[in-house]
Write a structure and sequence with these properties.
The complex is a heterodimer of chains A (167) and B (425). Chain A contains eight helices and seven strands, in the order E-H-H-H-E-H-E-H-E-H-E-E-E-H-H. Chain A is of the alpha/beta class and 167 residues long. The chains are: A alpha/beta (167), B alpha/beta (425). At the A-B interface, helix 1, helix 5 and helix 8 of A face helix 3 and helix 5 of B.
């Protein structure tokens, strides 16, 4: 699995209220949520983000609530993956379970500016900044997490496993 | 041949070893654990059960181990919330959920401990980040998302990475009017909001042992604000005394093994601590009260799963007795549960709040997560006893939230500005 997209940079401790605040928790349609994604961190983001773009952030991205609305809204906005120095643990699990790749790579975050083109290769475990022509090694995934992402999330992964078991 | 001596384990390692059916696990290992208790609330319940129904699953793995609480939007302030609760209520009936409290009990984490669902050393997961609360009773409590909850309700199992543990030794005597909330805010300010990310916390030492169960619940509740997976206190005599009469299960102390290995250990002397305040917009943006007093406030909020228990209400009432909330401030009070509400009523605390000019709400999460019952306008500032001051959390993203103890909230409500409770005692 590999993704190439334009980097959108965010700071440290971007919390789930900035990603999608409580006033939108009544929505469950991913596209409706996507229209408000990151509203309280950068009100222009939802209008600018293009399919395949990559969110780049400092430490502790996604801290706060356990709401899946947060990774759902980011994924539905077309973001192909998130590269951060680190993630809050519930957000990390939720993202993998919903099929949104989240990659820990502090060096790549440091080396990336807004608008750079990034290429992320999950299988190889690399983040390449095409604009700066520099490549970095990401924190490796456990094999079962790659399978989860490959399946598109926990629901599809579980279906695959159940089908395999019943064969 | 004698077996090798077991390696001493932290509370996180012991709890996950038990849940995984193993005698020994070590930090860094991945385990598949059997869940002892799973809870979901009104924001996610309809989605979680809907996922199961869509997958053709008609029952949960163990109806005795599943709790459903309505607490975030009660009573429903919107048609959408009412509809979500109507669906969740039907699902609870269809799935035969025995511990379905609807809106009758209070905030989910307080309900779980009051009703005896949480036991030392057990694994508790819930669709709420503040599930770390249950570490106060020695349980491994952690928040999960809706999709994982659907998986847990179907299978009773979930994977965990065994976390490393940071130990905080609390020593010294807390000064009067300085509380558990001030300790956890101080730790956030000193060590940062991600000090325990992917890790567990253990609180120990003589000052931890002297904390009431309510105070321990406050600190464990906010362990997630330090990034933690679990936030433990040892389940000692005080914890077991709290549980006695609430459960029929046998009660045993639970703590770390002597010689357990910690990633880091810090000693904190609480003797010199003064009340602490977290300023906008992060929980670790903490200042001593003396440096921020006088900051105007428009709303004072007393409540939440962090600080809505009886001793919190009593501390605030001691300040508000025979006083009036400042005319420019609206004060809202939400007891953490119906049990707390009734106790507070019997002790005359609700009358004190009402006389002082505060609005006493039904038990629930309303204002804390910005759902309803006290949202902020642009430019307004709230001081609250809750757990998060993120930008936009309580309404307008142009509002400000400060976090403090119930006593500081009450003193500030009277003064109309951040104030020191010791001047009102």
């Amino acid at each position: 699995m590999a993704f190439r997209g334009t980097a959108h940079k965010f700071g440290a401790h971007v919390d789930t209220d900035q990603i999608i605040p409580a006033r939108y928790l009544n929505m469950s349609d991913p596209q409706e949520l996507a229209a408000h994604v990151m509203e309280d961190a950068d009100a222009t983001f939802a209008g600018r983000v293009q399919a395949g773009d990559i969110v780049v952030a400092d430490v502790n991205f996604g801290c706060g609530s356990s709401r899946e609305h947060a990774p759902i809204s980011i994924k539905a906005a077309g973001v192909s993956c998130i590269v951060a120095k680190s993630f809050a643990r519930i957000f990390f699990r939720n993202s993998i379970n919903l099929g949104l790749p989240v990659v820990e790579c502090p060096e790549a975050v440091e080396a990336t500016d807004e608008g750079d083109t990034l290429q992320v290769d999950l299988s190889a475990g690399t983040v390449t900044n095409m604009t700066k022509e520099r490549s970095f090694t990401a924190k490796p995934y456990e094999p079962f997490m790659l399978e989860l992402l490959d399946a598109g999330g926990l629901v599809e992964y579980t279906k695959r496993r159940l089908q395999a078991a019943s064969r | 041949m004698t077996a090798a001596a077991p390696t001493p384990m932290t509370m996180a390692e012991k709890a996950l070893a038990r849940a995984a059916g193993r005698s020994q696990v070590a930090a860094g290992e991945f385990v598949t654990a059997s869940v002892d208790l799973a809870m979901t609330h009104d924001i996610f319940a309809a989605d979680v059960f809907g996922m199961l129904a869509d997958a053709g699953i008609r029952r949960v793995w163990d109806a005795d181990r599943v709790v459903v609480v309505f607490d975030h939007l009660v009573p429903p302030p919107t048609i959408e919330a009412a509809e979500a609760q109507r669906r969740a209520r039907q699902h609870a009936a269809d799935f035969g959920i025995r511990h379905f409290y609807a809106e009758r009990a209070g905030i989910c984490h307080q309900v779980l401990v009051e009703k005896g669902h949480v036991l030392p050393g057990r694994l508790v997961v819930a669709t709420d980040s503040h599930t770390t609360t249950h570490g106060a009773l020695g349980a491994a409590g952690s928040g999960i998302g809706s999709t994982e909850m659907a998986y847990v309700l179907a299978t009773g199992r979930l994977w965990f990475k065994v976390p490393e543990t940071i130990r905080f030794e609390l020593v010294g005597e807390l000064p009067e009017w300085v509380t558990a909330k001030d300790i956890v805010l101080f730790i956030a300010g000193r060590f940062g909001a991600d000090v325990a990310r992917y890790r567990a916390i253990e609180m120990g030492g003589p000052a931890a042992s002297r904390l009431s169960v309510a105070g321990r619940l406050t600190i464990s509740n906010m362990a997630v604000e330090l990034g933690a997976k679990f936030g433990f206190f040892e389940a000692d005599e005080a914890a077991l005394a709290f549980l006695t009469g609430r459960t029929r299960e046998p009660l045993e102390p639970f703590g770390p093994d002597d010689g357990a290995r910690y990633l880091a250990a810090y000693s904190i002397d609480v003797s010199d601590l003064e009340p602490q305040v977290a300023l906008p917009h992060n929980v670790d943006n903490v200042r001593p009260l003396s440096t921020v007093r006088g900051l105007r406030v428009d709303q004072a909020f007393l409540g939440s799963c962090t600080n809505g228990r009886l001793e919190d209400l009593a501390a605030a009432a001691a300040i508000l007795r025979a006083r009036t909330v400042h005319p420019d401030v609206r004060m809202v009070v939400a007891p953490a549960s119906q049990e707390v509400y009734r106790q507070a009523a019997r002790q005359g605390l609700l009358e004190i709040f009402s006389q002082a000019g505060a609005v006493v709400l039904n038990p629930g999460c309303g204002p804390c997560f910005g759902g309803h019952q006290g949202l902020l306008a642009p430019g307004e500032r709230c001081i609250g006893s809750h757990n998060r001051n993120f930008c936009g959390r309580m309404g307008s993203s142009a509002a400000e939230i400060c976090l403090a103890s119930p006593a500081v909230v009450a003193a500030s409500a009277v003064a109309g500005a951040i104030a020191d409770p010791r001047e009102y005692a």
